[in-house]
Automatic annotation (TrEMBL):
Residue stretches spanning the membrane: 7-29, 41-61, 81-104, 116-137, 149-166, 172-194, 239-259, 265-291, 312-330, 350-373, 380-401, 407-428
Tagged with keyword Hydrolase: no
Protein name: Oligosaccharide flippase family protein
Pfam families (alphabetical): MatE, Polysacc_synt
One GO CC term on file: plasma membrane
Organism whose genome encodes this protein: Mangrovibacillus cuniculi
Principal place of residence: membrane
C-alpha cells in the first residue's frame, strides 16, 4: 500500500469517528447552552482558533516539510531549535493574553476565569505542534490520527459528565464548554509528547549532523511565517465575521436577539452538518504537504500529477454524495440539534460553499507544498474582501438578511476555488517543462 493511501486511510478513519463524536458534542452544547448560549459560544471559538494559530506558528507544516526534504541526521539540531523557539513563543503569547484579554469582544459575555484557560492553551498548542510536524514528516499518520480522535472522545466525556451532573448559569456553562475543549487539547499534547519521546529513542543511532541555526531558521520560518500569515488572516476574518454578520443583520432590520440566534443556527447547526465530510479534505492536507514537498525536492513531476489526480478523485467521491444527503435530508439532520425549521433552509442554501471548500483544501496543500504560500495568501485576501463586500451588499443593501449573507459565502467559495485552480495548472506545467529541459 502506498504512503499516500496508508496515511489517508489512517487519518480518514480516525477523523470519521472523531467527526461523528463532534456531532454528539454539538448536540450536547445545543441542548445545554440553548440558542443564545450557543451563539455566544460560536462567537468565542474563532478567537480560540486565532490563538491556536499564533501559538503553533504553523510548525506542523514547516517541520513536516523539513523532515520530508532533509536527511535524518539533521533532525536533532532542527528539533532542539524548534523546542527553544516554541518556549519563547509560549512566554510571549501568555503575556499578550494577560494584557489584551480585557479588550477581547467577548470578555464581558462570559466568566472572567476564561482568561486563565486561554493562557494555559498557548504552551499546550505550541509544544504539541512540534510533535505533530515530526509525525507528519515521517509519514507516521497513525499517531496524528489517534490524537485527533482522542481529543474528541475526551471532550465529549468531560462535557457529558459535567453538564449532566450540574445546573449552571449561561456564562458558567460557556466557560465550562471552552474549558473542556482546552482540557482535551492538554490530554492530546501529553499523548503526542510521550509518543514522540518513545519514537525518538527507538530510532537507529546515527551521527547527528550540525546545521547552522540561520539555515534552520530560514527553512522553518520560510514556510511558517507565510503559512501563519495565511492562517492568521483566515482566523482573524473568522473572528470578526460573526460580529460583522450580526451587525449586517441588525442594520437590515433584524432584532439583535434574533440575529444572534440566526448566527447560532448557521454556525452551530448548518455549518456543523455541511462540513462534516471536511475531515477527509483536512486529512488530505496533512498527507499531501510532506508528499508534495518530497516529490518537489526529488524533481518528480509525474508523482505530483498522480497526487493531484488521486486527490481530486477522492474529493469528488465524497463531495457529491454528501451534498445530495444534505439536500434530501436537511430537516431530519437539523432536527437532531434544534427544533427550528429555518436551520434546514440555511443548510440547503449553503451547499455550494461546502463543495468548494472540499476542493479548495487539497489544492492549498499542493500550493503550500510547492512553496507558493504567498500566492495562496493573496488569493485568500482578495476573496475575503469580496466576501465581506457581498455580505454587506446582499445582506443589508439589498435587504436579503441571512439569505444574502449565505449567498455571499457561496460566491466567495466559488471564487477561491477558481483562483487556486488557475494558479496550480501553470505551476505543474512549468515544472514539467523544467524537468524535460
Amino acid at each position: 500500500m502506498s504512503v499516500f493511501a496508508k496515511g489517508l486511510i489512517w487519518l480518514v478513519i480516525a477523523a470519521f469517528f472523531g467527526e461523528s463524536i463532534e456531532f454528539f458534542i454539538n448536540m450536547v452544547l445545543a441542548n445545554h447552552l440553548g440558542e443564545s448560549g450557543l451563539g455566544h459560544y460560536m462567537t468565542i471559538i474563532p478567537t480560540l482558533f486565532l490563538i491556536m494559530i499564533l501559538a503553533s506558528l504553523e510548525l506542523p507544516i514547516s517541520v513536516s516539510k523539513f523532515v520530508a526534504e532533509k536527511d535524518k541526521m539533521y533532525y536533532p539540531v532542527m528539533l532542539r531549535y524548534a523546542f527553544r523557539l516554541m518556549t519563547i513563543v509560549s512566554l510571549v503569547g501568555m503575556t499578550i493574553i494577560v494584557l489584551a484579554y480585557p479588550f477581547f469582544p467577548f470578555s464581558q459575555m462570559v466568566d472572567a476565569r476564561l482568561q486563565w484557560f486561554l493562557i494555559a492553551f498557548v504552551p499546550i498548542i505550541a509544544y504539541s505542534s512540534i510533535a505533530r510536524g515530526y509525525f507528519m514528516g515521517t509519514h507516521q499518520m497513525g499517531a496524528i490520527a489517534f490524537s485527533n480522535f482522542l481529543r474528541k472522545v475526551v471532550q465529549l466525556i468531560l462535557l457529558f459528565m459535567i453538564f449532566t451532573q450540574l445546573n449552571m448559569t449561561e456564562p458558567l456553562a460557556i466557560l465550562v464548554a471552552i474549558g473542556m475543549l482546552i482540557s482535551s487539547e492538554l490530554i492530546v499534547c501529553l499523548y503526542l509528547m510521550m509518543a514522540f519521546h518513545r519514537n525518538w529513542h527507538k530510532r537507529k543511532p546515527e551521527e547527528d549532523e550540525w546545521l547552522d541555526k540561520v539555515r534552520i531558521r530560514r527553512a522553518l520560518m520560510g514556510i511558517s511565517i507565510p503559512t501563519t500569515g495565511l492562517r492568521l488572516f483566515h482566523a482573524m476574518t473568522h473572528a470578526v465575521q460573526p460580529f460583522f454578520i450580526k451587525m449586517t443583520l441588525i442594520l437590515s432590520g433584524v432584532a439583535a436577539v434574533t440575529a444572534n440566534e440566526q448566527f447560532g443556527l448557521v454556525a452551530g447547526v448548518a455549518l456543523t452538518i455541511g462540513f462534516f465530510p471536511a475531515f477527509i479534505s483536512h486529512s488530505l492536507l496533512m498527507v499531501l504537504i510532506p508528499l508534495v514537498s518530497e516529490a518537489q525536492a526529488n524533481g518528480d513531476t509525474d508523482k505530483l500529477k498522480r497526487l493531484v489526480k488521486k486527490s481530486l478523485i477522492v474529493t469528488a467521491s465524497y463531495a457529491g454524495p454528501s451534498v445530495i444527503i444534505c439536500l434530501l435530508f436537511a430537516d431530519p439532520l437539523t432536527a437532531l440539534f434544534v427544533k427550528n425549521g429555518i436551520a434546514a433552509h440555511y443548510l440547503v442554501l449553503l451547499w455550494p460553499y461546502f463543495v468548494t471548500h472540499f476542493f479548495v483544501i487539497p489544492l492549498q496543500a499542493f500550493l503550500i507544498g510547492l512553496g507558493y504560500v504567498k500566492a495562496t495568501f493573496w488569493q485568500t485576501v482578495w476573496v475575503t474582501i469580496v466576501q465581506f463586500s457581498c455580505i454587506w451588499g446582499l445582506g443589508f443593501v439589498m435587504g436579503l438578511g441571512m439569505d444574502g449573507v449565505l449567498l455571499a459565502l457561496n460566491i466567495s467559495g466559488v471564487l477561491l476555488l477558481a483562483l487556486h485552480t488557475i494558479s496550480l495548472i501553470p505551476i505543474l506545467n512549468k515544472k514539467e517543462r523544467t524537468i524535460l529541459t
